[in-house]
Each structure stands twice: as C-alpha cells, then as structure tokens.
Amino acid sequence: MFSYDDERLVQDREDLIGVLRMRFGDIAPGIIDTIYAFDEPDDMERLILVAANAPDLKTFLEELEEGSGNFKITGERFNPLGATASNGGRSE
Questions:
Q1: Whose CA is closest to 6, among 39, 34, 36?
Q2: Please, are residues 41 and 8 in contact by the beta-carbon 8 Å criterion?
Q3: What is the torsional sign of CA 67, 35, 6, 15?
Q4: pLDDT of 23-60, one tens digit each?
Q5: 49 Cβ partners below 8 Å, 6+ apart?
Q6: pLDDT at residue 16, as a whole number
Q7: Distance, CA of 80 to CA of 73 (rounded, Å)
Q8: Taking the C-alpha atoms of 39, 21, 54 and 73 in order, what is their torsion angle to the nearest 10 degrees?
Q9: Distance from the Cα of residue 32 to its chain's centroid
Q10: Quick one: which of 28, 24, 63 has its CA closest to 46?
Q11: Over 50: is that where the pLDDT of 79 sits?
C-alpha cells in the first residue's frame, strides 16, 4: 500500500515527465527509467525546476546525470528565453 508521500512522489515523477514532453517532445524510455530511479522528493523538485528552465533537453540531461543532491540551476544556461531575448525574439 502506498503512503501519502509515495503517491506524491509518483505524481511528481509524472509531472516531470509531462513538463519534459511539453517542452521537448517525445522522451526516450531510458530517461523515464532514470527519472523513476530517483526516490527523494527534493530531487523531483529540483528536476522539475530544471525541466521548466533548461533551454534544451541536452541541458536537462546533463543535470539529470548529476544525480541526487545537486542543486545548481543558475546562470544564463538555465534561461529558457536567453536566445530569444538576446536577438529580440527573431529566429536566425
């Protein structure tokens, strides 16, 4: 039987996968397996923030590979609008 915390962790994982799909399209099964290997709510919170702010999937995957306990989502690398803001919103 799931505890309340277990249910929340499952929902956080599904939320993370949902954010990734909305932002980056289809997600490889190996990435989903890696997400489900995390079992700490703090890790899920960090990864959701990374997924929401990383400008591309590669940046998210780099942070995913850092593992548990790392929290360093700062700087222009995590500005999802960085490229748009720097060129006035124009595609080049």
A1: 39
A2: yes
A3: positive
A4: 999 999 999 999 999 999 888 999 999 999 888 999 89
A5: 73
A6: 97
A7: 12
A8: -10
A9: 11
A10: 63
A11: yes
